[in-house]
Design goal:
Rossmann fold; AAA+_ATPase; alpha/beta; 34% helix; 6-stranded mixed β-sheet; 24 strands
Length: 497
C-alpha cells in the first residue's frame, strides 16, 4: 500500500460536469497516491465512468480543476492523457478484429526502425505482455474469433505496454475466470510496487477486498462515502451504493413443474469446444450453467440456438427433435438467447429503443409488411413499462446505462413470449440494483412456466437463481447438482476436474 503522507499523484477538486441543463457530477474531490489501488464503486449512473472519462481525457469537466504530479492537468483528448502517463482500460472492448493482437496492442504508436514498422519488436513486446497475464497465444494471430475473456486480457496487455503512472481499470475482470483474475491481480501488485496509482472500478465486491487499499463510493453524481480500508463488509458497501438497506439480493426461487420442455442429447460441437452434453430443463425451471472460462459454456448455448455448428446430438422441444440450424429456426420454435455481449451482439446501439424492439418483433409491429412509428412506439412503450427499462422509446440505446441496456435486450425478446430463455452472463458489468431487477425478471419467467437457462461466471449468481446447476469443465459435462447440494466447494470441485 502507498505511503499516505506522500503527495497525491492525481488530485481532483470540485469537479462538475453537465450535459445540457443536467448536472451529472456534483463537486467531486478525489486523491490518488502513488502505489495504491482505489476502488471507485457505485451503481450504473452514479458517475464513475464520467469521472474516469474526465481523468483520461475523453470528456472535459464543466468546472473544477485537476493536478497531475503537482502540475495543472486538463487533458482534452485521450492521447494527451496517455502522453502524460494516464491510461484507461474500458469495459467495452475497443479492439480492431481484422488486425493482429500485436497491431492492436500498439495501434497508433507502432515501433519503427529505419522509417518502417518494426514488426519483430512489436510482436515480441506484445507477446511479453500477454505472457505476463498468462495468455499463451501468438501475438500474430488476428483478434477476430477470440473469446471475450482473451480480448479483455489483450486490452489489459495493451495498457501494460504504455508504462503508465496511473491506470484506470473499468470492470477488468468482468469477462475473466478465476485463474485470469489472479494473474491480473499479480500484475496489479507489481505495478503498485513500482509506484503506479490505480483506479479500480468493479461490481464484483468480493474481489475489492482482495485488491483495493481504499474504497470511494459514488451515488447520483456525488462522492457519498470513503473507506480508508477495503476491509469493509459487502453489505455496508452495497448499502452505501444504493442508499438503502439491502435485505436480500436473490428472490425466492419457485419449484419447477414436472413437465420436461427442453432436452439436449449427446450434443457435440463441430469446433471441438464441447462434447457429449446431456441435460433437460423442466417447465418453470431455472438451470444454471457454471464452469471456468474456456469450459465451453457459451459455445454450448450458442450451438443450442443454431449459431455455432454441431457434429452430432439433438435438441428436443416437448419430446420432438427440433435441432435448430440457425437462430431464426430457434426463435421460430420459441427458444431465444440473450448473448453475453449486449453491445456487440444484443443491440443496435445508435438506434432507438423502439427500433430495437421492432427488429426482434417484426411479426407483431408490421402489418402487411409495413411498420408505422406509432405502432412501433406503442409496442416498445409497453415493453419498457413491463420490464422497468429506464428510458423512452425514441431514445437511442447507447444513451442507456449498462443495466438498462441489458433490460432492453431481455425485454425485446420476452415480448415474443418464448418457451425457453437462455441468458449468457445476464448481469456482467451492471450494478447491484440492476442485478436485483434482472434476478426478479428471471424468477418471474420461471413463475410463468418459462424454462430458463442462466450461464454465468459469477458463482454466487448461479447458486442464487438456479433450481439445479450443471457444471462444465474442459468441454465436458462434469455433473449436475440439485440446489440443496450446490455450493462454492461442490461446484468448484467439478469445475476443476
Amino acid at each position: 500500500m502507498s505511503d499516505d503522507t506522500a503527495a497525491p499523484i492525481l488530485s481532483l477538486r470540485n469537479i462538475r460536469k453537465s450535459f445540457g441543463p443536467i448536472e451529472v457530477l456534483h463537486g467531486i474531490d478525489l486523491d490518488i497516491h502513488p502505489g495504491e489501488v482505489v476502488a471507485l464503486l457505485g451503481e450504473n449512473g452514479a458517475g464513475k465512468s464520467t469521472v474516469s472519462n474526465i481523468i483520461s481525457g475523453t470528456i472535459l469537466p464543466s468546472s473544477g480543476e485537476m493536478t497531475w504530479q503537482g502540475a495543472s492537468f486538463a487533458p482534452s483528448t485521450p492521447r494527451e492523457a496517455i502522453d502524460a502517463g494516464v491510461a484507461m482500460i474500458h469495459q467495452e472492448l475497443l479492439l480492431l478484429p481484422h488486425l493482429s493482437i500485436a497491431e492492436n496492442v500498439f495501434v497508433g504508436r507502432y515501433p519503427t526502425k529505419a522509417g518502417m514498422i518494426d514488426r519483430k519488436t512489436m510482436e515480441e513486446r506484445a507477446h511479453d505482455g500477454l505472457q505476463r497475464l498468462g495468455l499463451d497465444i501468438s501475438s500474430r494471430r488476428l483478434v477476430e474469433g477470440l473469446s471475450t475473456a482473451n480480448q479483455q486480457l489483450i486490452e489489459i496487455a495493451k495498457a501494460l505496454t504504455l508504462n503508465a503512472r496511473l491506470l484506470i481499470l473499468d470492470e477488468p475482470t468482468a469477462a475473466l475466470g478465476g485463474d485470469e483474475t489472479q494473474k491480473l491481480f499479480e500484475q496489479i501488485e507489481r505495478l503498485k510496487a513500482d509506484g503506479v496509482g490505480i483506479v479500480y472500478i468493479s461490481h464484483r465486491l468480493e474481489e475489492i477486498k482482495q485488491i483495493a487499499d481504499r474504497i470511494v463510493v459514488m451515488r447520483d453524481g456525488e462522492k457519498v462515502q470513503e473507506f480508508d480500508s477495503a476491509d469493509v463488509p459487502v453489505r455496508t458497501i452495497v448499502e452505501a451504493m444504493v442508499g438503502r438497506s439491502l435485505e436480500r439480493m436473490f428472490p425466492a426461487i419457485p419449484a419447477p413443474q414436472e413437465e420436461t420442455v427442453l432436452e439436449v442429447r449427446n450434443l457435440t460441437s463441430a469446433q471441438g469446444s464441447f462434447r457429449d452434453v446431456n441435460f433437460s430443463v423442466a417447465k418453470g425451471e431455472i438451470l444454471g450453467i457454471a464452469g471456468l472460462v474456456g469450459a465451453g459454456r457459451t459455445e454450448l448455448v450458442r450451438a443450442m440456438v443454431g449459431i455455432d455448428p454441431v457434429s452430432s446430438g439433438q435438441i428436443l422441444l416437448d419430446g420432438t427433435d427440433i435441432s435448430p440450424r440457425s437462430p431464426k429456426d430457434a426463435i421460430r420454435h420459441g427458444i431465444i438467447l440473450v448473448p453475453e455481449d449486449r453491445k456487440q451482439q444484443g443491440l443496435v446501439l445508435p438506434h432507438s429503443l423502439g427500433e430495437n424492439f421492432a427488429y426482434s418483433n417484426m411479426n407483431q409491429v408490421a402489418r402487411n409488411g409495413w411498420i408505422t412509428k406509432k405502432r412501433a412506439r406503442g409496442f416498445a412503450d409497453a415493453g419498457i413499462v413491463k420490464f422497468g427499462v429506464k428510458g423512452e422509446s425514441q431514445q437511442r440505446a447507447d444513451e442507456l446505462s449498462g443495466g438498462n441496456q441489458q433490460k432492453l435486450v431481455i425485454a425485446k425478446w420476452l415480448a415474443r413470449n418464448p418457451r425457453v430463455v437462455v441468458l449468457d452472463e445476464p448481469t456482467r458489468g451492471i450494478d447491484v440494483g440492476a442485478r436485483s431487477s434482472i434476478y426478479e425478471i428471471i424468477v418471474g419467467l420461471a413463475e410463468e412456466g418459462v424454462s430458463v437457462i442462466v450461464v454465468s461466471s459469477d458463482l454466487e449468481e448461479v447458486l442464487g437463481v438456479s433450481n439445479r446447476v450443471m457444471v462444465m469443465a474442459q468441454g465436458k459435462q462434469a455433473g449436475i447438482l440439485d440446489r440443496n447440494d450446490a455450493n462454492d466447494v461442490s461446484v468448484m470441485e467439478l469445475a476443476t476436474i
